[in-house]
Every structure is written in C-alpha cells, then in structure tokens.
Amino acid sequence: MSRLTALAFALVIVVAAPARGSEEPKMDPALRSKAKRAIDGGLHYLRGTQAENGSWSDSVGITAIALRAYLESHRGYSEVDGAFISRPLSFILAHVNPDGSIGETNQNRNYNTAVSIVALQATGNPEYKRVVERAQRFLAGLQVDEGEGYDRSHAYYGGIGYGGDERPDLSNQYMAIEALRASSFDPDSEVWERALLFLSRCQNRSESNDQEWAGNDGGFTYMPGYSPHGGTTSYGGMTHAGLISLLFAGVDKNDPRVRAAYDWIRANYTLEENPGSGNAQGQYYYYTVFAKSMAAYDEAVVVSTEGVEHNWRNEFAEKMLSLQNEDGSWVNPDSSRWWEGDKNLITARIAVALNLTVR
Amino acid sequence: MASDGSTASTRALHAVVLLVCVLSGTAVWSEEPFFQAAAVATAALLLLPERPPVLAWSAYAALLAGASIGLLGAPLPAAVSLGVGTGALVLLLAAAARLAESLLPEPRLAIPCVAVVAGLLAMAPVWLGPAAEAFDWPAAALDVLVAVSPLSTLAALAEVDYLRGAWFYAHTPVGSLRYGYAGPWTMSVGYALCGALCLAVDRVVLRSRAAQPGDRGKPPRRRVT
Questions:
Q1: Which residues of chain A register pLDDT less than 50?
Q2: What pLDDT, on the 0 to 100 scale, is given for residue A15?
Q3: Do A50 and A67 touch, CB atoms closer than 8 A?
Q4: How far is CA A286 from the centre of its chain?
Q5: 3-state class of A166 per DSSP?
Q6: What ipTM was reported for this prediction?
Q7: Helix or strand (DSSP H, E) at A42
Q8: Percentage of chain B with pLDDT > 90?
Q9: Within a 10 A sphere around the Cβ of B200, how many other Cβ atoms?
Q10: Is B136 in CB contact (< 8 Å) with chain A?
C-alpha cells in the first residue's frame, strides 16, 4: 500500500467515523423486524374481525383507528389495496352528520370525529378535504368558550369534552388536538391559545396553573381538579397526553411546561403500569400515548431521574411483543374500563403505536 | 283535576310548588334541561294527591315541564320532547302510586315506596356501576342498566350524555364503559304502556275487592292530610 493510499484510507475512516456515529439507529434492527412482524400479526387479526361492511366493533371510532393502523403501517397500504381499506372508509363517510361530526351516535362525538379526521387524512386523498374541514369546524365548535357562557377564568374554558355535554377533559382534548394538527388546522386560530389555557389548568405546575389545587410535579391530571385515580394525582396516561397536546399545539420543547411534563415522565418512567394509576385501568391507553408522545418529543433515549438510559423504542417494542396474544391481538385482560376489553380497539391502538415506534 | 275534593286553590298551590322545584333544581343542579325535567317529575311524584287522576296529573306535569323548560331558554323542539317525556314518566309514577295505594296495607306508604323505587332506578348506574365494571358486564346488560334509569330517558330526549357529565363521571364507572341509550321515544311509550298496565291492574284489584263481602270490599283507606 502506497503512502498516498494509506493516507486516503485514513482520511476516509476519519471522515466516516463521526457520520456513522450520528446515524446510530434509533432502534435495534432485529427488534424493529420483530416489531414489524407484531404489527403484521395485529393487522392480520383485524382482517379476521372486520365486518362485511368494513367496520370494526360496529363503531366509527374503532374503525377509524384500525384503518389508521393499516394506512400508517410499514406495508404502506392505501385505498387501492382493496375492500379491506375502501370499505371502512365508506363506513366512516356514511356516518358524516349534517353538523360536520362523524359518528354513529350522539355519544363520543369528539373521539369519533377526531380519529376519523386522522384516518381520512392518513389516506392522503384530497377528495376528503371538505369532510375534514367540516369535521375540524365541529371539533373547534366543541371547545368551551364564551359561546357556551364561560369566561376565561372558568376552569373549563378552552377545553373539549366528549361532545355530549360541556364537561371537558384532557383525554378528549388531546384527541381533538391530534386531529387538528394532523389535518393542518389554521395555526393562527384562537382555538390553540384557548386549548393551551385549558392544558395549563390540567398540569400540576403552579407557575402556569392558576387553580388552587395545582401541585408542582409537572404531571397532568384528567381535568382541572379531578383525577379518576384520586384527588388531582398526576398519572402516566394524562401526562403523555398532555405532552402530546403541548407539542402539537406548537409549544417549544424547551418551554418550561414541556420540560416539566418531560421531567415527570423521566421520574416515573415505566412500561410495567400506568404510573400514578395504582391499577390496570387505562393501561393500554397509557401505552398508546406513551409511544405517541415519545415519537413527538423525538429523543431516542430517555434518561430517567435516577440516570438510567432507556431506549424507549426498544423497550416499548419488547413490552408489546411480550403482551401480544397468539392470535395477534392485544387486549387489557384486567380491566375493561375505557373500552380496553375490546380486542379490536386495543389491537388497532397498539398497531398505531408500534407504527410510530418502528418508523 | 284531582278526585275527592281537590280544589282549584290546592291545584294552584301545587303548580307554584312545582315551579319552585323546577327553578330550584335548575339553580342547584345544572342548566341542563333534562335536569329541569327530572325536577318536575320528582315534584309531580312527591305532590301526588291521593287516588291521583293519573292522566290529568301527567298532562299537567308535561305542560309544566315543557313550558318551564321553554321559558328557561331551551329550543322549542327540546322543550316539547322533554315535556312529553316527562308526562309519560309521571304517568307511570302516578299509576304505580295509585296501584301501590290499593295494594299496600298502609296506603300512606304508596308514594314513599314509589319514590324510593324510582330513586333507586334513577341512580342504578351509580350503585350498580361498580359491579358492572368489576364483573365485566356485556354491552347489552350495560344498556339495560342505563335504560332502567328514568334520567337516561330524559337525557336521551335532551340529547345529553349525562353519564359523562362531571358528577356522574366521578361517581360511577359506567361513563367509562361502552353503553348506549335506548331510543327515547321507545322508553316514553314503554312508560306510558307500563302506566296503563298499572291502572288496569289497579282496576282489577278494586273490582275484586268490591265483589268481596266485609272490610275487604271497602275502597282503599285515605291518607290523613
């Protein structure tokens, strides 16, 4: 080897080394492959339980989430792939209501409309633009504000609820924000600012929460002054939902509200339970929002308060693989609260979460 | 309107008391029209005269509910629906009270008994909700649990998902389970039919007693007021 060749070789190594380091995979490749197979298993399960009309569990909401799982999967499914995609779309579109909402009942109108927007948007088909825009307006109209007789000082102000009454909560709020973000809702709309006010009143952070009960652990509770797990306890499901909401509403990663939420997640990092809940209720909801918020926050490694490094993608995939049933489905075996006993719903949700994980 | 000597002044007094109940219920509970309807139904039950004239009393409650809900700002269709629904519910309650008056050894207990049963049914999602969650009731059973509450019928007429409202969501897990509301008109017709059945049974009971000699043939005792 001549000197020149050796020099050139050394140069290549020097130049390539840092580049290789910066492209360190976010996820263990072998685990990514296993996770993709797990997604395939979940989607296969859903194919088997899909009704003749394309729906799942006779629900617009569950159908929309399952459809999203297909459309966002590594398989790249689209409408041209067959009836298993086009029929659920038709089912959703058949349930578009005159007020712009999408759903089969007057219940859960926010959830159903929000997840339908995300699914329609995931098709990338501009034909659904008008339906999506009307649905956006419906969601925005659900927001509690002066129109319902509330002023800014009211704890409900800026919140969005189920749509069956005026009680807002963070879970519904996050679903609506996710849908508005996914469908590129007007970034200058006052909806975002009002939503942030409500979000601040769900966070245990007294510097930004003007409610008397506000604590200071940075986590989120279900709604101002109430947690289904007791008092105003911060818990995992809502803290991840809060983090997603802050980020999707345009708040910077370095904003103190975001940092406080992320610090709570670091202090309570676990995939063994929905931290703060004390039971199995909402466990799979937690898994879903965990993956969504971590993907949105976009850090490969979470360093816990104790200094332990967690590659959340690897750990999440491993956990979901361990929980998957032989038939490819997922379900909460310990609690049916929040519909977690419905295999179609939970399988679709986890497939969506794994899709985000393996990207 | 009422049998055995109820005067116009007592009826007027009833109306005033009912209206106060509606307004109190509105102020204390919620601005939701279905709570106002529930307040009227409750007042109509508690103020029932002895041997109540069921049809007239239920029509009276329907009118009062519809009018007051309309005056408090609800849209006309909602006020009419809730008025009719309240009337059907009161028809059942009044007929049940009348039957209970005939059947119970102590007729004074008729209205309290009906009120307790109605209250238990209205709150069924609250006191049976934990069992529904713990034993993972199927969707159909949950639907029945929701349907037995008269509040559900009034809420469905008002298109309000009351089980996900602040108080109920905090006090029963039903709001976090999968359930549906029965068709409001189905339930209202059901109430009216059940009320008619109660009246028919009451008539049979009275006739059979009239046919018997001695004390058993006497009409039911009157309440002491």
A1: 14-21
A2: 47
A3: no
A4: 9
A5: coil
A6: 0.78
A7: helix A29-49
A8: 41
A9: 12
A10: yes
pLDDT in tens, B34-85: 888 888 888 888 888 878 788 988 998 999 889 888 888 788 888 999 999 9
Question: Looking at residue A345, what is its pLDDT?
Answer: 97
Q: Within 13 Å and on the Cβ side, how many CA atoms surround A349?
A: 26
DSSP letters along B121-187, please?
HHTHHHHSHHHHHHTT--HHHHHHHHHTSHHHHHHHHTT--GGGSHHHHHH-GGGGS---PPPHHHH
Contacts of A159 in chain B (CB under 8 A): none
pTM, entire model: 0.85
Burial of B196 (0-12, 13-18, 19+ CB in 10 A): middle
Q: CA-CA distance, A334 to A329, in Å (whole number)?
A: 15
Preferred mutation among B35, B164, B167, B172 to probe A, highest tally of A CBs within 10 A: B164
The residues that bridge with A96 in the sheet, in sequence order, are A102
| Positive or negative: CA dihedral B59, B60, B66, B69 | negative
Q: Kindly list the structural domains of chain A, giving each domain's residue range(s) and its CATH number in brackets, ordered by start.
A: 26-358 (1.50.10.20)
Contact A331, A346 (CB under 8 A): yes
Answer whether B180 sits within 8 Å of A337, measured CB to CB. Answer: no
Name residues 95-154 of chain A within 8 A of B (Cβ): 105-107
Closest CA to A261 of A312, A211, A209: A209
Burial (Cβ within 10 Å: 0-12, 13-18, ≥19) of residue A131: middle
Q: What is the pLDDT of residues A225-245, one digit of tens each?
A: 999 888 999 999 999 999 999
